[in-house]
């Protein structure tokens, strides 16, 4: 265990005192552990779907690698589903220690091992006895790839998963619609404030996608929904790239962005989706700003160049 994880273990068991060490630890934890973990763990639809998918897919006695421990939920679900051995990795040392304690509290430490490092640093023969039978990698953000799904799966598929291993999810699709919204545009763009021109701040605007819960902001869709990107996580190269997407416009006006959401294929007919209609999902939708607004006219087809890196989506005419 690392020195930081060792300190975390001690402080997690220490009652909080104002100004004391555990109080300082709590402040650090609040800064380093994203708040979305709480919304995620309270997302019943997500949790039930993943637990059910693991129960259907994991063969009795199988070895499992879970990328992104979080609270340890999926690792424990894999153990409960009949896995003989579960390795779960978490790059955040505070979360890794929490996961260890949660797993231990459930009496599953003999099956589940939590490793405090990213999956890309795991090695067979050191962290894993052999390539695993099942890979679980539910590390997705509003736009699918922002948490590093592509590089993590690329590496694990080559170095950590057996050639005939099972992958969850096995495929992912990204759907999108052209959208206009002055309200959301102002979340990432400025002109004047208090009578001063502050437009130079736009040099710091987000170029890639960011999360927006569409139903909380006035907006208008400018096209029908379409599948704009698709990944076969078992076979595709999963490298950065770009493609031209054709979207039939449904309204006249100016498109500001491509609103996107994902669909994960977890096998057995089970999918996870954060579409705008699924307002109960803790995942928001992805807002992919267009480099420049695109004038559109109903009935015409609009071509958008969608680019993806290992961690971000971007779009232009």
Automatic annotation (TrEMBL):
CDD domains reported for this sequence: AdoMet_MTases
Keywords (A to Z) from UniProt: Methyltransferase, S-adenosyl-L-methionine, Transferase
A molecular function GO annotation: histone methyltransferase activity
InterPro entries: Arg_MeTrfase (IPR025799), PRMT_dom (IPR055135), SAM-dependent_MTases_sf (IPR029063)
Keyword Methyltransferase set for record: yes
Domain Protein arginine N-methyltransferase: 186-306
Name of the protein in its database record: Protein arginine N-methyltransferase domain-containing protein
Biological process terms in GO annotation: methylation
PANTHER family, per database record: PROTEIN ARGININE N-METHYLTRANSFERASE, PROTEIN ARGININE N-METHYLTRANSFERASE 7
């Amino acid at each position: 265990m690392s020195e930081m994880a060792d300190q975390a273990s001690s402080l997690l068991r220490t009652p909080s005192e104002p100004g004391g060490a555990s109080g300082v630890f709590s402040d650090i934890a609040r800064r380093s552990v994203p708040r979305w973990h709480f919304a995620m763990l309270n997302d019943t639809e997500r949790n039930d779907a993943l637990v059910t998918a693991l129960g259907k897919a994991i063969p009795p006695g199988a070895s499992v690698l879970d990328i992104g421990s979080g609270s340890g939920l999926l690792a424990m679900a894999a153990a409960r589903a009949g896995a003989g051995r579960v390795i779960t990795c978490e790059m955040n040392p505070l979360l890794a220690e929490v996961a260890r304690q949660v797993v231990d509290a459930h009496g599953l430490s003999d099956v589940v091992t939590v490793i405090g490092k990213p999956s890309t640093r795991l090695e067979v023969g050191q962290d894993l006895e052999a390539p695993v039978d099942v890979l679980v990698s539910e590390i997705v953000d509003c736009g699918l790839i922002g948490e590093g799904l592509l590089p993590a799966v690329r590496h694990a598929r080559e170095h950590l998963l057996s050639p005939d291993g099972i992958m969850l999810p096995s495929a992912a699709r990204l759907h999108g619609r052209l959208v206009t919204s002055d309200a959301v545009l102002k979340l990432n763009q400025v002109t004047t404030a208090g009578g001063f021109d502050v437009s130079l701040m736009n040099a710091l605007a987000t170029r890639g996608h960011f999360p927006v819960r569409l139903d909380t902001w006035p907006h208008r869709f400018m096209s029908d929904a379409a599948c704009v990107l698709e990944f076969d996580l078992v076979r595709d190269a999963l490298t950065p790239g770009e493609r031209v997407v054709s979207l039939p416009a449904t309204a006249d006006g100016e498109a500001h962005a491509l609103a996107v959401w994902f669909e994960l294929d977890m096998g057995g007919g089970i999918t996870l989706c954060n579409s705008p209609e699924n307002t109960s999902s803790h995942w928001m939708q992805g807002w992919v700003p267009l480099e420049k607004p695109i004038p559109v006219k109903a009935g015409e087809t609009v071509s958008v160049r969608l680019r993806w890196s290992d961690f971000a989506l971007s779009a232009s005419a």
